Amino acid sequence: MLSNTLYIEAGGGITQLNGTKIGNTYEIVDEKTSLAYLEVASRWFDSLDTTANAGQVFHEFRNNEFSYGLGVDYYPTNNSKLGFKYQNEKDNIASVYSAQYGYFFAEYVNNISNETYQANVGVKIAFTDLTDFSTYDMPTNIKPHLSELHRFESVAFGTNMEIQSSAGVSKTAEAIARENTPAVSSPTISLANQSVNDNGGGLATNLPAPSVTNVKTGAVYSIVTGTTGLTINSSTGVMTYNTDLNSTTNFNITIKVTNPDGGNSSTTFTLTVVNNA
């Protein structure tokens, strides 16, 4: 406070945001933002207040922001006021027109950045005893002390708290590793029910090759559940049966195909072996 009619304030601040994970994919990294500002308020003829402010917000992960504003408050009487303020900050350029008489106030806000308009009307009431409304008196002097004209301080610190930028949000190491891991293929395999003769165990019988899709070069075929005398070609999937049975018998057979990347699929079919004595 330089005098009863001139007030200058300079200040600054630092905000530290400690990061954390957001689910399994994203994380917020630690981020620091610094603020410096200067504000000047002056009172003229005991009825006119003027304010000017300017400042800079220094971000760690995005461009720094400069902000400035101007304001004029005129007091026709001690308990009435006409005001105008203009504030220019990133994504929030606004003009505010206001009027107040005692506890009644009206405000019109033109947000130039968002092309929106807002009107506010209300009352401001203060009590010396919250349990006794009769303690309220109509204000006779609404002129604030010059040091209370901190329009920019509230704006700057409010902006300072909104420090997280999209650049401060990144994917976790686990998410990056998942994205860099090639997707596992999904082959399919099928084979209809089959019937063969045992030929007295003296003649091998080949079964048809299974139907497959999305099978890669180097895929391996195998028998998961089989029976005596049944073999499979691991490269082609063609099965061969060669065993003598005493009677016709049904077997549930499961075969599987596995691609080099680990993708696999299996199928089950019924193999009927007819006894041919």
Which range best describes the helical content: under 10%, 10-25%, 25-40%, 40-55%, 55-70% or over 70%?
under 10%
Characterize the biggest β-sheet: 8 strands, antiparallel
Domain unit count? 2
Secondary-structure content class: mainly beta
As a percent range, the share of strand residues is over 45%
Structural account:
Mean pLDDT is 78; it is low at 155-166. This protein has helices at residues 151-161, 173-180, and strands at 6-17, 21-22, 26-28, 31-44, 48-58, 65-74, 80-89, 92-101, 104-111, 116-123, 169-171, 188-190, 194-197, 205-206, 211-213, 220-225, 230-232, 239-241, 249-258, 264-274. It has two helices and 20 strands. With 277 residues, it is mainly beta. The chain is rod-shaped and about 125 Å long.
